[in-house]
Amino acid sequence: MGLADWLSQQNVRFVFRIKQSTHIYLPAFNYQPLRELGLTPGTSLFLRSVEVTHQPGYGTFNIAAYWQRGYRQHRQTQGWYLLTNLPCLTSAVTAYQARFGIEAMFKDCKSGGYNLEGAHANEARLLALVLLITLAYTCAIFLGRTLKNAGVQHYIARLTELTRTQRRHSSFWVGLYGTVWVAGLEFFADLADCFRRVSPHKLPYFQKGLRVMALIQSSV
After folding, report:
1. Which of 129, 175, 208, 210 lies at a C-alpha separation of 20 to 30 Å from 157?
2. Contacts with 96 (C-beta within 8 Å, 6 or more apart), sequence order
3. How many separate domains does the chain show?
4. Contact in structure between 18 and 82 (CB atoms under 8 Å)
């Protein structure tokens, strides 16, 4: 019994992305790979009760195929082929899209933020650490949203790609590194003051930075 079969028996709703080389059985065409369905940008389809692959471990499921329409420079190189027991295309695509937010949260807790994978703690300490990270993560998100609403996130999340017009950093990233930005400014305060005296015409920018720092500190 495959995982998808077991989940169906447990009445668990699921969406798995599968490769376009996966074979499905269609009465008029016998077995054929998903790539032969003719999916193109801006199109979608939903197949109900399709036999998936001729290999053991699979069964009969719904297939949702979706290829997002390209817009200007934002184009997907390939479509999604989703194995699911959800009843329609919209619910399957919506459920799968939620995974991107979940993966972003995993990165925040790991390499992109708190380095949880490097803790090497036992079970009791790991549970305590997860609780602390949960509290810290929530505080960072609230702070990040406050800074974004105040319109000062560009001091923290500068653009690094010339083709982008919006910063893609999350509220968590802005909140977490906003406090780091303040700590760094405090650490280099004397050096910054020296630069200010050497270049007095930069004083208005220096004062803006101080106001932003004060806003971050008041929000912590």
Report:
1. 129
2. 15, 17, 80, 82
3. 2
4. yes
The 10s digit of each residue's pLDDT in 132-148 is: 888 888 888 888 888 88
Task: Give the model confidence (pLDDT) of 165-196 as tens digits.
Answer: 555 677 887 887 777 777 777 677 777 778 77
Residue 114 belongs to a domain: no
Task: Give the whole-angstrom CA distance, residue 95 versus residue 57.
Answer: 24
Are both 87 and 175 inside the same structural domain?
no
User: Same structural domain for residues 92 and 63?
Assistant: yes
